[in-house]
Amino acid sequence: xKEQQEMLYIKRxxxxxxxxxxxxxxxxxxxxxxxxxxxKKKYGIQSRSTVVSWLRKYGNFDWENQxxxxxxxxxxxxxxxxxxxxxxxxxxxxxxEKQAYVADKKAIIFDMMINLAEKEYQIDIRKxxxxxxxxxxxxxxxxx
Length: 144
Description:
The protein is mostly helical. It has helices at about 1-10, 20-30, 35-45, 50-60, 75-120, 135-140.
C-alpha cells in the first residue's frame, strides 16, 4: 500500500504546468467556483504557494493594497442589500403606475377635446377610413 502512495506522488515544478492551466486555475478561484485547496486537489498541485504565486502573477487581486476585487458578503449583508433593492423596486413601481395613470387620463382628455372640436366645428378630425382605403398601394395594384 505504501508503494502505491509513493507511485502517485510525483515531484513537479511550476514549469511543469502549462500557461492555460495556470490561467484556468486563477479564473476558477477568482470567479469563486473553487478555493485554493479545492484547485490543488482537482488539478494535482502539490503546494498552496504555487497556486498563490499564480494568483499574484496572473490574477486581478490588488496585492499592494491587499484588497480583493469582490469581497464575499455575509448572509446578513446580502439580506440587507436585497431588502434595499426591494424598496427601490417598489418605489419605481409606484412611480411607473402613477405615470401610467396620468397617461391614461391624458388620453381620455385628448379624446374628449377631439370630440368637442368635431362637434363645435362640424369637421372630422379623426380619420375613419373604410376597409378598402386602408390597404397599401401595392395591394391596390394587384387588385384589377
